[in-house]
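Design request, tokens follow.
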């Protein structure tokens, strides 16, 4: 779930009149961090599911219950992939060549190694916004000497404070990172308060990550994104963003559809993201549309890539996963009625080897089955277009 058609993605990017310079399109591979996550987690047991149902009925949200029971853990990107993206951005800004191709076709070739490895911890401060229980935050700790995190869920905050190898520099409620609403029109660039990161000092971070946050952060996702960018050091600071494909905004932990007014589904910013991203016909079109949306708001995308979004499955999914794998490996094309709404999903027991062909790679990820519910994520490294 890493490979994609860079040519078609580049064509989609060029359809936006706001993109002045296309990003490096990086073909990633699973890293050691992804393998560790896959090795650690197994589908949730049935007795824990019963406990979850009971706990979720008395807690404010299912997210709280899952955090307390250490289930439904999620993983977005490993340290090896983040380092590869940061290195590609640095090489691009330095005008270098090597693994990053020239400006006309900004595509980095895939790594010949099945697993990326060799992370170097660097001095610097990273902020992980919406960190969940920290499964991806610990990967950022492998890269930066200081890592802080924010969360809205009390259960997730408790788990984050328990991380001790090493402990996080600071764990904050999301309200300690107030969103500064932009005063400019989308194509006029970024104008946020000079102290856009509130109580944290401005600017103070080398990297701010928003991993699958913009589709579940309420009515002001673009304002949050711009506030994050105002919080990084101007010289080399970046914002790391992950967007799940297909894009479907909602508010985590609250019941109801993503279009409910309570979730911010009808706000101007959410509607704008829906209008740009939801019509995407495939992953490559989605990636191109996202780069164009960022550029429209004065955000330059330096690097873009594709990674699998791993979600720990519940025990009953094992049977469903086997049914899907059997159906998709048969000669007859199954209908939606045969395998339900999960026909487009993949489940994985172990990280499969590097496969350059996207169709073949998807087939392998489906065949290994049963441990995780897998979605597509587009990941981006962003900076201010004016720099």
């Amino acid at each position: 779930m890493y490979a994609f058609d860079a040519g078609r993605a580049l064509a989609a990017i060029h359809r936006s009149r706001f993109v002045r310079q296309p990003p490096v399109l990086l073909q990633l591979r699973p890293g050691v961090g992804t393998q560790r996550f896959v090795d650690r987690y197994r589908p949730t047991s049935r007795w824990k599911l019963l406990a979850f149902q009971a706990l979720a009925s008395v807690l404010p949200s299912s997210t709280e219950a899952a955090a307390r029971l250490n289930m439904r853990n999620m993983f977005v990107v490993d340290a090896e992939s983040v380092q590869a993206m940061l290195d590609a951005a640095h090489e691009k800004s330095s005008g270098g060549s090597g693994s990053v191709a020239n400006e006309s076709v900004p595509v980095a070739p895939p790594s010949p190694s099945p697993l990326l490895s060799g992370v170097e911890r660097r001095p610097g401060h990273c902020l992980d916004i919406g960190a969940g229980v920290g499964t991806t935050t610990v990967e950022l700790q492998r890269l930066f000497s200081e890592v802080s995190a924010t969360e809205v869920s009390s259960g997730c905050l408790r788990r984050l404070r328990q991380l001790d190898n090493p402990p996080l520099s600071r764990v904050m409620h999301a309200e300690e990172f107030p969103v500064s609403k932009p005063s400019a029109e989308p194509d006029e660039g970024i104008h946020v308060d000079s102290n856009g990161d509130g109580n944290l000092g401005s600017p103070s971070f080398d990297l701010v990550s928003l991993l699958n946050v913009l589709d579940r952060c309420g009515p002001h996702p673009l304002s949050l994104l711009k506030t994050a960018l105002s919080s990084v050091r101007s010289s080399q600071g970046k914002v790391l963003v992950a967007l799940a494909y297909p894009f479907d905004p909602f508010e985590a932990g609250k019941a109801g559809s993503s279009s409910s007014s309570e979730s911010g589904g009808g706000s101007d910013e959410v509607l704008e993201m829906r209008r740009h991203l939801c019509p995407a016909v495939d992953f490559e079109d989605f990636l191109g549309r996202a780069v164009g949306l960022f550029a429209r708001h004065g955000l330059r995308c330096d690097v873009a890539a594709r990674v699998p979004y791993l979600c720990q499955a519940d025990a009953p999914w094992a049977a469903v996963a086997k049914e899907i794998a059997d159906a998709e490996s048969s000669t007859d094309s199954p209908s939606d009625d045969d395998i339900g709404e999960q026909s487009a999903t993949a489940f994985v027991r172990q990280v499969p080897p590097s496969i350059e062909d996207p169709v073949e790679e998807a087939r392998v990820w489906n065949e290994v089955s049963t441990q995780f519910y897998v979605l597509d994520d587009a990941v981006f490294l962003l900076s201010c277009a004016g720099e």
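Comment from the thread starter after seeing the answer: thanks! The chain has one domain: 6-36+72-316+372-384.
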